[in-house]
Every structure is written in structure tokens, then in C-alpha cells.
Amino acid sequence: MASFSHQMAFFFRCPRNKNVQEPNKQKLHCVRIKGTKSFSPSGLDFLSQEHGIGITSVDHTENVQVFEQQIRQNIPTKKQLVDPYRQGMIIEEWAGYRQTVVIRSYEVGPDKTATIESILSLLQETALNHVWMSGLLSDGFGATHGMMRNNLIWVVSRMQLQVDHYPIWGEVMEIDTWVGASGKNGMRRDWLLRSQATDLVFARATSTWVMMNQQTRRLSKMPDEVRAEISPWFLDKHAIQEESPEKIEKLDNNARYVHSDLKPKRSDLDMNHHVNNVKYVGWMLETIPDEFLEENQLSGMVLEYRRECGSSDVVQSLCDPQQEGLLETGIPKCDHISVNGHKLSAEILEGNGFVGCKNQGPFSYTHLLQVKGESKNEEIVRGKTTWKKKLISIPFPT
């Protein structure tokens, strides 16, 4: 039977004048939360006992603020099967997670399709909501209770994304995500992104995560208590089969395209106080020439993360095309004809299918983000992107 989480409001009356007491009524001592009169200590004790919220002391303002945050976030302490607020549910052996999302206006680009950054952000959000539904989420960025006790956080070490089609503005999508084991001390997380209307898979992704000590910023082994928390959620299935991952070569100063002096903004930082990995992709794509991006769309990406990027780092983005003569002789173009507002290749309309455009791609670039140092540069992430010609169409299964 599905269980629903819900919010409850509790009201505690605070006397307006502390010199006036109503007869036969107990005086309630008010505490302040961020300068506002709020719950009384006795009320906090009541909520802690009745609803299982771990409040050990209410003598300090900090503890009261923590309590207020718990009430506002409403983080489940037990496994949930359905989340009506996020349109999510637990699926597949009670371990996978599915969330329904609508592509918003601010998630699309000039062509009215979702940007690659928006897709990555949706994958990240569904991953966090999966942990939320599990009842294991503490107050960290996807960290479990055992991880918080050991001062550990998750960091991604590798990610691969394949995109066959891009969602359009207003399209309803379903995102499935699940986790599995990755070696002794890592965790794998996979995703499938499909259209709710057609059930066609638009994109798939896989990633590898390891733990890092939040204070020392060094990688850590997985404690037994954390393994006991997350291992019941592991599924033996893969969104992308990778038998032998391809190693990405490191670029040097001879790279064809270089964008220097990139500086993180405050809005680029996540709750772990380092630059969110989605921002890295934006920096990588900024280095590719505009004329190439206008005619092509990203179809695949592999990222290998080397170190985190802080707010004070100055970043350099390098990229190099892997196909010789790609931009020296000009970008190959398909002649397009507009049909009902959508561009279709003339070769497709003539009955040649996708053969004509297929010979013009896919193309690939090698990328490197690095922190510029006085003595040496330090790698942040290596990347490889694969591209294909833009064909704007709405895919439907035949």
C-alpha cells in the first residue's frame, strides 16, 4: 500500500504581553527563529516525541533553526513509495525511482529544445529526490545519515551521456534512475529519459560516484554503515554498457581553441561549496566555435573528473577537434527544406533516409578544464563530446 508524506501545521500561542497572564492557563515561553517569535520549548519537545524528529536540545537558537529547517523541508525518515509534490514514485523491485517532469520555458534554448545543461540538471535533481524518497537523506547534498556521521560527501568521478533526441518546450518526460555497486568503494547511478507521450527513450546516462571527506577534501573508503544503508537499493542493470571505458587524452597548450580567465560566480556553487559539475559542461561548450554549434547538436559526452573547483579558482577551457580538417575546409552542410516549421534534409525527402547527413558526422571534440596556477595548471575535468547534424523533428515510434 502506497504511503504519502504530508505537511502538518502546529500552532502555539505566545502571550503578547509578558506582564499579563490569563488565569488557569500555562505560560508558554516563546523562542525566536531568525528574529521571529515562534515555537515554545515544550512545543518542540511535543513534536519531537510525537513525530520522530531528532531534537536533542532546544536551549540554543541554532538547534531551533535546525528544527525549523526540518519542518520546512519535510525530509522523510522512512521509505516513501509515492511523492505527490515531485510527481515521483518508487518502481522496479522497490528500489528504482521515476519522476515526471515538464520541460519549462527557462530550460530550452533558441530552438525550443532543452539545453544539455537543463537535461543534466534534471538528472541531478531526480537523483537527489531518489535519495529523499529512500528515507536515508540527511541534511547534506544527497548524503545519508551514515555519511554525515563520518563527515563524508558524494563526488562524481566519471559520467557518460548519450542523447538521441532532445525534449521540446512543454513536453512531459519521465526520468527513471537507479543505483548499483561500482567496485568496493564506489556507487554507480544510471538514468533513462523518455517521452511520456511516445515512450521513446530520448537520452540515457551513467555515472560513477565516490566519497570524499568534507574537511580534508580527500577521497575516502566507504564505511560499513554507509554500505549497509545503500546496498539494499542496488540494482544489477545498466543504462549504458561500457565494457572498457575509453581513456581521454590530456590536451596541452597546442589545443586549437582556448578560453582563459573563466571565474566561478556565487551562483555556480552548490551546497558542498564547490562549482556544480553542470557548470563545467557550460564552460566546455563555450570554447567550441559558434558556427559549429549552430549547425550541430551534442549526441554524446564522456567526462572524467579530476579535482573540484572552488570559488577563487581561475579556469581555462581548452578544446580540440578530433576529425582533421573539420573546420579548416568549412563545416559540411545539408540543404534543408522547411516542412510545417521543421527543417528536414533534402536527401531525406528524396528517399535517401539519413544516409546523406550521416556521412557528415558525427564529429567529436576533446576537452580539458584546468585551474591556472602560478607554477603549474591542475586538471579539473577531461571530456569528450560527440556531435551530429541538427535535424529538427518530433520523433514518434513507427
Automatic annotation (TrEMBL):
This is Acyl-[acyl-carrier-protein] hydrolase. Gene3D superfamilies: Hotdog Thioesterase. It comes from the Eukaryota. Belongs to the acyl-ACP thioesterase family. InterPro entries: Acyl-ACP_TE_C, Acyl-ACP_thioesterase_NHD, FATA/B, HotDog_dom_sf. Residues 97-230 form the Acyl-ACP thioesterase N-terminal hotdog domain. Its EC number is 3.1.2.-. Keywords: Chloroplast, Fatty acid biosynthesis, Fatty acid metabolism, Hydrolase, Lipid biosynthesis, Lipid metabolism, Plastid, Transit peptide. PANTHER family: ACYL-[ACYL-CARRIER-PROTEIN] HYDROLASE (PTHR31727:SF10), OLEOYL-ACYL CARRIER PROTEIN THIOESTERASE 1, CHLOROPLASTIC (PTHR31727). GO terms for cellular component: chloroplast. Plays an essential role in chain termination during de novo fatty acid synthesis.
